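Hey,

Quick one before I head out. I ran the complex with acetamide overnight. Inputs first:
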Amino acid sequence: MLFRPLNYLALSLVFVLFLATAKAQTTKRINIIPQPSMVIEKPGEFLLTADARIISDPMFAEIAELFSSQTFIKQGTAKQKDQPHQIRFNHVGINVIPDSAGYRLLITPERISIFARTKIGALYAMQSLLQVQLSQPNRSAIPCGEINDRPRFGYRGAMIDVSRHFFSASYIKRFIDLMALYKLNTFHWHLVDGPGWRLEIKKYPELTSKGAWRTHKVWKEWWGTERLYSTEKDPNSYGGYYTQEEAINVVAYAQKRGITVIPEIEMPGHSNEVLGVFPNLTCSGNPYRSGELCLGNDSTFTFLENVLTEVLAIFPSKYIHIGGDEADQTAWKHCEKCQKRIKDEHLKNESELQSYGIRRMEKFLTNHKRKLLGWDEILEGGLAPDAIVMSWRGEQGGITAAQMGHNVIMSPGSHCYLDNYQADPETQPKAIGGYLTLEKAYSYEPVPAELNQSQAKYILGAQGNIWTEYIGTVEYLEYMTFPRLIALAEVTWSAKKDRNFDDFKNRLQSHYLLMKRLNVNYFRPTYHLNAVTKINNQNKNAVIKFKSEQINPPIFYTLDGQLPTSNSLKYQDSITVNSSSKVTAAILEAGQVKDKPIQIDLDFHLALGKKVTYNLPYSNSYRAQKEASLVNGIRGSISYGDGQWQGFDTNDFDITIDLEKSIPLTSVAASFLQQVGPGIFIPSHVDLSLSDNGIDFHKVKTIENTVPKTEKVSTKEFNFTLTGEKGRYIRLFAKNGQHGFLFTDEVIVH
Ligand code: ACM
């Protein structure tokens, strides 16, 4: 064997020492996402001239072939195996590459060497090399360096919903190529849902001759009607499906690129398309009343098992996703068969009925040597014994499942739903709602703090989800997916200690070039500013730091609420403010404000930094700055997702602030937001009460809302002006009259 591990180890040590003294260049030439465990840049380049050849260990022949097909570098012949200018795939042992998915990549001017002990390791090395090449300004010069790498999590996923909008098999393959480039290893294919069944099932051709074709192209329009299905022949119908041959082909394509395809066959909810075709599987006999399969009817299980039998023959994945989310139990409550099942099986309620259905499917899958994976609702009514939970309604489902010793995939809506807005909704094409910036996606930590070390090992990884209610084209799909998905790729691959958003952002600049070359319609980095403000109560000052998706942008600001110009104060590293001010800042280029300025209303009021007790909790999805939100001196902007507005879902708002001593008060004010689209309403009234002991409160005043619930966007300040009032404890209660969200940003006390 040509390769002697110890020599290379010695060599790399020499290079480490060399680099420690030489210090890396300020602009890095090797920019890999996800961040590898170790990257050392070295001087020089490997030039991709016509004489370069790929030479591979037989074990990696298929990968070498794939590499050749993507780079047009020729494979070498046996005679060329010792030629100087080669890219070599070396098979090495566990002593060299301990991690089964690990690799080492060594680039010198004479040779590029890949070291791996498994095919998957070699594949990841190849992807790193491809990235380095594609992200260079000059694609035929690969900078020298050394990379050692291994993944943190074994599950690194992405999901596409092809039911609400259909995407062709050839597009799915392109998506798989992009996933593979970023070392994601699981494609979750949401194949069926109310808006369309997308997989040929030979036993039930109606599922695709009818159930795959809905009457309206635009999902929202169809959803707003009776939700009818048509046929492929109808020129006004919309839909599509994959033949089994196409699906098998996608699975093989993905497998060759190190990606497992997990199919999702939704049950028992989200099944309108099945019921539209087979009304006998509904509770009522009327297919348009509910989207739930009847769980009292054995034909439902026969149907599902027949479908799964064909699905298992197409998809070799260990996990089979059965959905399980958002089933409405109403139909089951009024169904004789479902009620009989509940009685016969000694079930307590409809939740246990759903759990009964899931357990039955799990038995079927276990008998076929597969494992059941479902959304976190499968916890309700009792979790099937071996099930794996995909936590989407926040992290709690995942926490509970891991504490019960079940494997978990994290995919909370707050950080992993790529259908959410990624920038100010006013500037974006219509999306489902929410607010998930690149930085927030990047900040995700898949292991919740609530888990101890032994529970943490049940977290297999995380997944980004692309739901397609509003995503009808591949251009829009890529716009929503990139670069947030590659931030999640780093979240799941890189060691926690190696993750740093600023560094990611720097590397991303080269990946914009890479994505351009691959014609990815990625979301361009915005000129939006975010701020981190730290208030120091003792010194009565505030330190503000601005953040942006741009690298070192020119930021100008004013302190009096005026729009900044290029003559305004120039931002350096931070701003220190020591009196109430309206800090207004923006990125300016050539004298032009590039995006809506950010305004920070700093109010040095009496409640600043005081303890807030939440008599009713805030929403887990809109925690803002948690317990500090309402007394941090910072008002929210017009966007409820700006990190200052704290949300309260369906509950009333009820908080107490402790001012630490009884003091005379002249005013207490709180503003509430209204944005009718996402269901945020101003409360119907707000009560102010005061107390000296925190127990006996007296109500001082009530202020009624005057903004009509039809007004789309608004804010209202509930300002209690006081005369002769004193108190230590301030209690504010706001009535949630519309059962939507309440959002408030600050309680200002003078
Ligand atoms: C889901 O988003 N309903 C899993």
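The first strand starts at residue 38 and ends at 47.

Talk tomorrow,
K.
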